[in-house]
Write a structure and sequence with these properties.
alpha+beta; 3 helices; globular
Length: about 150
């Protein structure tokens, strides 16, 4: 499976990745592992899931996070074909205390990675609820890739 071709087939537009002058950077590579900083879905996806957004809207927000993380991986590696597999995902959902569908929300992220990388997109994962996230984002997701 060619992840670059799959991104095109899915009609995904990967955003530009900006690296500022702050200490925080979007990725760190250590050996054959690429660690990506947490990514939020961007504007229009703020608020708490279970109050301001439905589970399905949270799913779409997590999918948007995946598109952003694919862009970061491509910026770091130059080509998504250098990703050998998705290793670990940490998905954080800004949710009301009684919300219990964090896994269904983060499936939006996981499902897209499997669409793009096939079997190598399957990964270990944690999906947790948070009382708030930066900028009132609904979702934030970080990921670790094994790379060539």
């Amino acid at each position: 499976m060619d992840p670059e071709q799959k991104v095109k087939e899915l009609g995904l537009e990967l955003p530009d990745v900006q690296i500022g002058d702050r200490p925080l950077i979007p990725w760190v590579r250590s050996g054959n592992l690429l660690y990506l900083s947490g990514k939020t879905p961007g504007s229009g996806k703020q608020g708490q899931v279970g109050k301001d957004l439905s589970t399905e809207e949270g799913y779409q927000a997590a999918r948007d996070c995946a598109i952003g993380q694919l862009a970061v991986a491509k910026a770091a590696l130059g080509d998504l074909n250098k990703v050998k597999r998705v290793v670990k995902v940490l998905g954080m959902v800004n949710a009301v205390p009684e919300f219990t569908e964090q896994p269904q929300v983060i499936n939006g992220f996981s499902d897209l990675l499997v669409e793009v990388f096939g079997e190598n997109g399957r990964h270990a994962r944690s999906a947790v609820g948070m009382g708030s996230l930066p900028g009132n984002a609904s979702v934030e997701v970080e990921v670790i890739f094994e790379v060539e």
